[in-house]
Amino acid sequence: MNRNCKKSEQTGLVFFPAFDWRITPTHPEREERLLYTRDQIFEEGIMDLPQIREYKPRMASFKDIARTHICVPGVRDQVTEAHLISAGGALTLADALMAGEIRNGFAMIRPPGHHAMRVVHGNRGFCNINNEAILVDYLRKHYRLKKIVIVDTDVHHGDGTQDIFYHDPDVLFISFHQDGRTLFPGTGFTNEAGGPAAFGRTLNVPMPVGTTDEGIHYILDNLILPVLEEFQPDLIINSAGQDNHFSDPLANMKVTTQGYARLNEKLSPDLAVLEGGYAIETALPYLNTGIILAMAGMDYSNVVEPDYRPGMLKMSEEKMALIIELVHEVRTLWDHRNTIDLAALRAKNDFFSRQKTIFYDTDGINEQQTERLRLCPDCGGYLSIVSQAYHYHGAPQNILALSIPFNGCHECREEAYSEYEVGIDKKDYDYVYFQDRVSDTYRCYSREKDQEWEEV
């Protein structure tokens, strides 16, 4: 896709407040997050403007979810209708964009998704499935896009999105967020830079508490925009979390509505997908309005939250110096992205392995995971994932998952399928999965039922 040749000048919008989905009635992730925005933009007459085009969300298919996730025991066990419509809202705008009906789009949807990893045992960080990752894989499968960027502007590190694309050199994931030493999920440090075949395609900037507009725009101007210019993506997605706002109750940052809107204007994403933001009345209606106007190329200078006063938000010289240092460090990682000698790694070992400990804060699940990537000279290599999850009642659940990349070669597909069949025969696992993106088929086996099925 040529980002400079778009037929329409309209901005597409999807609203999905998910009235029937909530964690608890008073949980900060609830439908009012979008209802106040809806009231605001109707009151301002934004929906009547010729630059705006509203779409109704459709439901994502179970296969759309299985293309991205290994859901345990199956997709139907981890998603509700609300999740399918939320993910489908992003896909609706993707189709409109690729058809030339809009020049960009903003999916204001919930439930959110950027903490959902490749393997899904339950809800963590308010997320069951990852809307942005599902969107990326949908675009690659149906429109053959190759190079895609996800810029995550949520105050929490997008650890799920990072996990899904950690070994993928064609998806550049950039996240700036409050330092993980001070906020959930406790990850997102500069040394998390991608696997050996995709080193430097994961870039994290863990910002100090109290970062202001000045700080995030320094990161944008001196790191993100220059990197995007070099990467030359087919498409840019903004994982649009808005909880860096100074009034957000779940974080400790000092970004304003104007700061977010200017960021969106500079970044110029093709698609934005709502993530966090929990100042439901004092910030979200203004933040979303500012972003909509920026995406539509309209004046947003008068969109100011009621609690803001000029000069009230300042960042110390020490914190700004830290951001400058972080940007230099991450830029150096990017500049050295092609320095890993994969041939030398293959000579030592056929697989790259890493261990992960994952906590599902919402559902109280502890997961231990071993991930092995085949270092293939002909494709991205298949993943072999062994996962053991301990639920709050103490019953462990053991799974084996084999995952083939979009460019998987014949040898990797054959080897992974053999491992899938061996996993079924060995009887060490409660569930065994085979995720083949080349043929777009997704198989699951249940030990208890001695039954195999396909996600369709």
Q: Which CATH C-level class of the largest domain is it?
A: Alpha Beta
The stretches of 5 or more residues where confidence is low (pLDDT under 50) are: none
Termini separation comes to 28 Å
The CATH architecture classification of the largest domain is 3-Layer(aba) Sandwich
How many domain modules? 2
Helix content: 25-40%
Helix/strand-derived class? alpha/beta
Main sheet summary: 8 strands, parallel
Main sheet: which strands, in order across?
Answer: 2-1-4-10-9-6-7-8
> What is the typical, i.e. mean, pLDDT?
93
SSE order, as H and E? EHEHEHHEEHEHEEHEHEHHHEEEEHEEE
Q: Supply the number of helical segments.
A: 12
**From the structure provided, what is the oligomeric state, counting identical versus distinct chains?**
single chain
If you compute it from the alpha carbons, what radius of gyration comes out, rounded to the nearest whole angstrom?
Answer: 21 Å
Q: Beta-strand level of the residues, as a percent range? A: 15-25%
Got a strand count? 17
CA-based shape? globular
* CATH evolutionary superfamily of the largest domain: Histone deacetylase domain
CATH fold description of the largest domain: Arginase, Chain A
Walk me through what this model shows.
The structure is a single chain. The chain is an alpha/beta fold and about 450 residues long. The chain has two domains: about 10-335, Histone deacetylase domain (Arginase, Chain A); about 340-455, no CATH class. It contains twelve helices and 17 strands. It has helices at about 30-45, 60-65, 75-80, 80-100, 130-145, 160-165, 215-230, 255-265, 285-295, 315-335, 340-350, 410-425, and strands spanning about 10-15, 50-55, 70, 105-110, 120, 150, 170-180, 200-205, 235-240, 270-275, 350-360, 365-375, 385-390, 395-405, 430-435, 440-445, 450-455. The longest helix is centred in the middle third of the chain and has 19 residues, at about 215-230. The radius of gyration is 21 Å and the shape is globular. The two termini are about 30 Å apart. The relative contact order is 0.13.
